Amino acid sequence: MTEPTLRLGVDTGGTYTDAVLLDSDGGVVSAAKALTSHHELTIGIREAIDQLPAETLSQISLVSLSTTLATNAVVEGRGTPVCLLLAGYNARQVDKAKLEHIVRGGHC
Predict the structure, then answer these.
(1) Is pLDDT at 106 greater than 60 in this prediction?
(2) Has residue 25 been placed in a domain?
(3) Signed CA dihedral, 68, 74, 77, 83: sign only
(4) To which H or E segment does residue 56 belong?
């Protein structure tokens, strides 16, 4: 059996989900595109991967997933408020953004 040498990249965007297989030199072995399924992202991811040659999938040694969906939501003002908990951060850097709200947990 040969050692896996291909890399799979998947990018889920606002309209399309792209999948690409790269060889060890960075050359494109195969590429595919499917519609992004916003209600269930795995559907679009699966449809894109299913278009890649089946015989190459056993040669994948690394998978990389990227998306612009979070960036799009921020730019378009969609979504709900979120929380980020940071331990051991630089308070001066966070203060610059004026987004900090501290909840005392009895250990501060």
Answers:
(1) no
(2) yes
(3) positive
(4) none
